[in-house]
Specification:
alpha+beta; OB fold (Dihydrolipoamide Acetyltransferase, E2P); Elongation Factor Tu (Ef-tu), domain 3; about 25% helix; elongated
């Protein structure tokens, strides 16, 4: 979350009340616009209110006297009505004067520019001595939240719908300078529309950053999971070859000869590729010397162990 700091008061910028790069709390004073014109306007509004209140109290007393005189027929009805109307008019004037005081207090408060969020403030973009106002083109500064941070990822519509069906899921996140994906964080938002240009949905994960070490705008490595474990087939990614627009692997049959198997692939898991279609668990796949393999060529296989995938770094499917 990033907020441009602007002032709703017009006038001379007196000072900045922070050091560039500081962590600030919501409500902290950041800038001061010359408050003297607003203080004078507030004093004038308060004086007007006091004057109206005095007139109102006098009008009430006059109306009470007129009511007593009317009872003894000393004054006509129209004189009493005039006194009552004067009281009603002053009630309205008193309300207007009180509103003017509230408006002047608000204008004075605008002269003290405060942070609307907690975060880290950037450099000062307009220095003291300049004239500023609501229509000033440049903000005074910018504050970005540091805890939490939001990580946005575009995923396919299929993945987005699967995550939504799972109630959000989990993201594993790694930032520059970090090994692997040390942050396991919740997904708190999945957009309500697919981008028609890319066919993707925007997903947001929430990363806690209490020490403020991470900064707004960082790029991140992200792996997503809906939290459900699935059994999937994996082959070493180096075993996959390309035939025009098709992907295939070489499988050693029971007769020891190589056979061409077209496959449909899924995500890459630490050097191992998910195979959605085209293989069975018992198939023996050629992973080395692919350039020497041809259909029907006899192969003398040497079975090698396929290294396990770290389940903590599994992105979109959890192999077992």
């Amino acid at each position: 979350e990033a907020v441009e700091i602007r002032t709703r008061a017009s006038g001379y910028l007196v000072r900045a009340a922070f050091r560039e790069g500081d962590l600030v709390k919501k409500g902290d004073l950041l800038f001061v616009v010359d408050p003297r014109p607003y203080q004078a306007a507030l004093a004038r509004a308060q004086a007007d209110l006091q004057s109206v209140r005095a007139d109102y109290e006098l009008a009430k007393k006059n109306a009470a006297r007129a009511e007593e005189l009317l009872k003894t027929n000393v004054i006509p009805q129209r004189d009493y009505d005039a006194q009552s109307a004067a009281v009603d008019q002053l009630v309205a004037r008193r309300a207007a004067a009180a509103a003017a005081v509230s408006s002047a207090e608000l204008d004075l408060d605008y002269a003290y520019v405060r942070s609307p969020i907690a975060g880290r403030i950037g450099r000062i973009l307009i220095t003291a001595g300049n004239i500023v106002g609501p229509n000033t083109a440049s903000p005074l500064a910018t504050v970005v939240s540091v805890d939490p941070l939001y990580v946005y990822v575009d995923v396919s519509e299929v993945e987005g719908l699967r995550l939504r069906g799972a109630g959000g899921g989990v993201a594993r996140v790694g930032f520059p300078g970090e090994d692997g994906y040390p942050h396991e964080v919740p997904i708190d938002f999945i957009d309500n529309r697919v981008d028609p240009a890319t066919g993707t949905l925007k997903v947001r994960a929430v990363v806690r950053n209490p020490d403020g070490r991470l900064s707004h705008g960082l790029f991140a490595r992200v792996r997503l999971t809906d939290g459900a474990a699935r059994e999937v087939l994996l082959v070493a990614d180096r075993a996959i070859a390309t035939d025009q627009d098709r992907r295939f692997v070489w499988v050693v049959g029971a007769d020891g000869r190589a056979r061409y198997h077209a496959v449909k692939l899924g995500p890459l898991e630490d050097g191992l590729r998910v195979v959605r279609e085209g293989l069975s668990p018992s198939d023996r796949v050629v992973v080395r010397g692919l350039q020497r393999v041809r259909p029907g060529v006899e192969v003398t296989p040497e079975l090698i162990a396929m290294r396990a995938v770290d389940s903590q770094s599994s992105p979109k499917e959890t192999p077992q």
